[in-house]
From TrEMBL:
Enzyme Commission identifier(s): 1.2.1.84
SUPFAM superfamilies assigned to the protein according to its UniProt record, in alphabetical order: NAD(P)-binding Rossmann-fold domains
CDD domains linked: FAR-N_SDR_e (cd05236)
Superkingdom of the source species: Eukaryota
Protein name: Fatty acyl-CoA reductase
Example GO molecular function: alcohol-forming long-chain fatty acyl-CoA reductase activity
Length: 637
């Protein structure tokens, strides 16, 4: 038997009689990891699951209510039936703790003592993934929390491996081939010197003290900490707070690990499960899923990206498999190794494939809206540069917003609340685009040499090959389930386990070449730029009508019908609106006449000046050509 086969066989055997501490057990990946262990490795000794809660009882309640009730665990429930509760009681121990605190914030000292002497492996899946997270929160979880996990791991007598799950995008906005190499302490992406994690911690505390001393509101504090995180990240070359703090977390554990075996796992964009425990499971609307949902609902009519750039996506169950295989392969080796877990190098998918696949998917399985109607999708408009995005926003929304601002001024800021609301919405869009721009135009390819070696340790046959699959998957369609043959042009869709279309009746079938879709979508696009202004006009009319009816009702006899009062008031308001519109048009026409007359006058004056200039030039030319004309030179006497 080969060495590789020995390693493969040990993947499942490694889990036998092992105690594993899972940090951040309530998270998306952690849920899949726990389900996998319970399903395929019933001989595991113990799973310690660290959850943030006020006490042990609350943590257990949270595990039962928030985790076990998920559809993710239905396969495990079917496998064990009534014996599942007994299995969990024997194999799972819930711990209340917080990685932002030393010793993980453990309050049960007996349990802490047990873990220190029993835990064989630690998997840190805790993270805050918000790109613009508060700097104090992101630094506490992604950076200092990683150090707290490492320090606890070094206290554990039997721990042979620590798996720290990071992100492939700690590389920032690098392009080209990105290697599986570690970051040195204080290293930056733009060469700026002075990055000191202790100084960052001190800076955060000073800023918080300053804000509290000034009596700042919670909203002000939150925004200030978000801005601080983004500013510090960009100062050292990272595009956002998330990847900046994750990079510093890697620096901390890599520098201070001593002789502990360390795996730094860097997954790319994580989508729904490909195969285990069943295809298509995800939790909420995650990253790339939001694009699918927005497009399927008919709300996403344009998309900003470079069609020739590559989207590096990987199913969540394959990321979990990578964790398991790396644990078995690296336990006890007393070295640090980095694994890029992605698809951009060996199974690249360009962005231009997404619109095509999304259109074909939702044309075959259309979304059903709240009214029970089928949402018909059309071709999406691609904005391939920031310049085209700004032009699109100006034409579609900013002009209407300026119109609303003018109406608001005319009406003495009666629509101030609505104006501020829609203005904030547009600013929010710009903020999101600013945050996601580095990934919409990302040109990096993640080298996965180490991960490929890890894949070769997995047997090509047998049960191990199925439960430890790391790569060799078809392109994922925005976290939806479908077969490999669909990529090759066949339309044999597999059922989507998330049941996006569960309300669709069998008679709803739409041809992929339905002619009316594009026309209908074009009409919607033409009307979209006016929707905003029309909604404001409607809102102001309703608001004025309501106040006027209330005032008139208070001075009229009760015997007069409310409907009659409403009809009369609305009629008067409409006449007043028409009168105002007439006055506005008269003013506009008057101003237009003045402007037109001014333009004619200016053009007349300009023509006159030009005629005089031309006449003068002609006269000069005539004098120059006349030999009788004096040229300023006297003959010699």
């Amino acid at each position: 038997m080969s060495t590789e086969t020995e390693v493969v066989v040990s993947v499942l055997k490694y889990l036998d009689n092992k105690s594993i501490l899972v940090i951040g057990a309530a998270g998306f990946l952690a849920n899949i990891f726990v389900e996998k262990i319970l399903r395929v490795a019933p001989n595991v000794k113990k799973l310690y699951l660290l959850l943030r809660a006020s006490n042990g009882k609350s943590a257990t309640q949270r595990f039962n209510d928030e985790i076990l009730r998920k559809d993710l665990f239905k396969v495990v429930k079917e496998k064990y039936g009534p014996n599942l509760n007994q299995l969990i009681s024997e194999k799972v121990t819930i711990i209340d703790g917080d990685i932002c605190l030393e010793d993980l914030g453990l309050q049960d000292f007996d349990l802490a003592h047990e873990m220190i002497h029993q835990v064989d492996a630690i998997v840190n899946l805790a993270a805050t993934t918000k790109f613009d997270e508060r700097y104090d929160v992101a630094l506490g979880i992604n950076t200092l929390g990683a150090l707290n996990v490492l320090n606890f791991a070094k206290r554990c007598a039997k721990v042979k491996i620590l798996v720290h799950v990071s992100t492939a995008y700690v590389c920032g906005e690098k392009s080209g081939l990105i290697m599986e190499t570690p970051y040195r302490m204080g290293e930056t992406l733009n060469g700026t010197t002075g990055l000191d994690i202790n100084h960052e911690k001190k800076l955060v505390q000073e800023k918080l003290d300053q804000l509290r001393a000034s009596g700042a509101s919670p909203e002000t504090v939150t925004q200030a900490m978000k801005d601080l995180g983004l500013r510090r990240a960009k100062m050292y070359g990272w595009p956002n707070t998330y990847v900046f703090t994750k990079a510093m977390g890697e620096m901390m554990v890599g520098t201070k690990r001593e002789n502990l075996s360390l795996v730094l796992l860097r997954p790319s964009i994580i989508t729904s499960t490909f195969k285990e425990p069943f295809p298509g499971w995800t939790e909420g609307i995650r990253t790339i899923d939001s694009l699918a949902v927005g497009y399927g609902k008919g709300k996403l009519t344009c998309f900003l990206c470079d069609l020739n750039a590559i989207s590096d996506v990987l199913p969540a169950d394959m990321v979990v498999n990578s964790i398991l295989v790396s644990m078995a392969a690296q336990a006890g080796k007393q070295e640090e190794i980095i694994y890029h877990v992605g698809s951009s190098l060996r199974n690249p998918m360009k962005n231009k494939k997404f619109p095509e696949l999304a259109y074909r998917y939702f044309s075959t399985k259309p979304w059903i809206n709240k009214e029970g109607k089928v949402v018909r999708v059309g071709n999406i408009e691609i904005l391939d540069s920031m310049r085209s995005f700004h032009r699109y926003m100006t034409i579609r929304y900013l002009i209407s917003l300026k119109g609303l601002e003018l109406v608001n001024m005319v009406l003495c800021k009666l629509l101030e609340k609505e104006f501020k609301y829609f203005h904030s919405k547009i600013n929010f869009i710009y903020r999101l685009v600013d945050l996601y721009q580095p990934y919409l135009f990302f040109y990096g390819i993640f080298d996965d040499t180490n991960t490929e070696k890890l894949q070769k340790m997995v047997s090509k046959t047998g049960v191990e090959s199925e439960i430890t699959r790391i790569s060799d998957f078809p392109y994922p369609l925005l976290a939806s389930r479908r077969s490999r043959d669909f990529i090759n042009g066949r339309d044999d869709f597999a059922d989507d386990t998330r049941s996006w279309n569960r309300k669709i009746k069998p008679e709803y079938g739409f041809d992929e070449d339905y002619d009316g879709e594009e026309d209908e979508d074009d009409h919607e696009e033409e009307d979209r730029s006016l929707d905003l202004l029309l909604r404001f006009v409607e809102n102001v009319f309703r608001k004025i009508s309501k106040r006027a009816r209330k005032a008139v009702r208070s001075i009229l006899p009760v015997s007069i019908s409310t409907k009659l009062v409403g009809f009369s008031v609305n009629g008067v308001l409409i006449l007043a609106f028409l009168w105002i519109l007439k006055a506005f048009l008269e003013v506009a026409c008057t101003l237009g006449t003045i402007v037109f007359t001014s333009i004619l006058l200016i053009r007349g004056l300009w023509a006159g000046v030009a005629y005089m200039q031309e006449s003068r030039n002609n006269r000069i030319n005539e004098l120059a050509d006349d030999p009788r004309a004096w040229n300023g030179v006297q003959p010699v006497s």
